[in-house]
Amino acid sequence: IRKINFSNIHMQRIAIDTSIVLYQYVVAIRSRGADLETSDGKITSHIYGILSKALGLLEKGILPIFVFDGEPPELKKYILDNRKKMRENAKKKIDTVKDEEERIKLLKRSVVINHIQMNECKEILRSLGLPVVEAPEEADSQCAFLSKKNFVYGVASEDMDLLTFGSKYLLRNFSISKKKEMIEISLEKILEGFEMSMEQFIDLCILLGCDYTPTIGGIGTKKAFSFIKKYKSIEGVIGYINNNNMKRYQIPEHFNYKEAREYFKSCV
C-alpha cells in the first residue's frame, strides 16, 4: 500500500466503478438537505455528479473508463433484498421525522439511482467521447477483468472486493479534491507479504465477509488470517472446527463459500 497522487498515474487508463461514484455524489448533495432539481422538478444530482467526476479527472490527465452495473448475480439476492428493505423503511420515516439531522440521515439511506438516471449518465459520458462499459453482471468483476487483461492500469473504487476479483491495483480515495490522500493497493505485493496464493487470499476474503455468503460466527480478522495460514483453505478450517467440536465457531446453514469462491475466480 502506497500513497500516490495524480502525477503518479498521469495519462493512465483507470476503470471507474461508476455506481459507487454516483452514490457518493448524490449522498453528499442530499446531506445538504435536498437533491438538485430543474425548475420543473426533475432531479439532476446524478448529472452533476458524473460531469464533475469526468471533467475533473480529464483535467488531472486521467483517462477514465466508466463501468456500469448489469444484472446482479443470484448469489447477491439476499443482501440486495435487505438493502431494499432498509431504503424503503428510511423513505417511510422521512416525512414523520422533525429533527433535521435525522431527516438528512434518512435521506442518505434512501438514495436510489434508477435505470433512467443511469442511462442519462451513460449518454452524457458518450457525448463527451469517454468510454462506457456496460457489465453483464456487477461492475466490480468487470473492472477487475479490465485490470487483469491490462486494458487499464488500475481500478478506482472503495470496494475491497476488487482485489478478491483479481484487480492488479486498487485506487482508494480517488477524489479530485484533496480531503484525503489517494492510496494504491498492489495485489501482487499483498500476496507476497501474506505469503499466500490467490486461492488462499480469496478464501481469506470470504471468511472476512463478502456480499455472496454469510460468514462463520466467531471468526474475526486475526483468526481468519491465522486459520488460512495454517489450514490453507476454508475446507481445512471447517474440518478443524468439526473435528474438534468447536462450538464457539458457528457455521451458517447457507454458507455458500464454494459458490462465492467460484464467482470471484470467474473473472479471468
Say how many strands there are: 7
Please tell me the overall pLDDT: 89
Q: Unreliable runs, pLDDT <50, ≥5 residues?
A: none
Estimated share of beta-strand residues: 5-15%
Order of helices and strands: EEHHEHHHEHEHEEHHHHH
User: Helix coverage percent of residues?
Assistant: 40-55%
CA gyration radius, whole angstroms: 20 Å
Provide the fold topology.
Elements: E1 2-4, E2 13-17, H1 18-30, H2 45-59, E3 63-68, H3 77-94, H4 100-109, H5 115-127, E4 132-134, H6 139-148, E5 154-156, H7 161-164, E6 169-172, E7 182-186, H8 187-194, H9 198-208, H10 221-231, H11 234-243, H12 257-265
Parallel strand pairs: 2-3, 2-5, 3-4, 5-6
Antiparallel strand pairs: 1-7, 6-7
Helix pairs in contact: 1-2, 1-4, 2-5, 3-4, 9-10, 9-12
Give a quick precis of the structure.
The chain has 268 residues and is an alpha/beta fold.
What does this structure look like?
With 268 residues, the protein is an alpha/beta fold. 49% of the residues lie in helices and 11% in strands. The chain contains twelve helices and seven strands. Helix 7 (161-164) links the parallel strand 5 and strand 6. Helix 9 runs antiparallel to helix 10. The longest helix is centred in the N-terminal third of the chain and has 18 residues, at 77-94. The two termini are 24 Å apart. The model has no long low-confidence stretch (mean pLDDT 89).
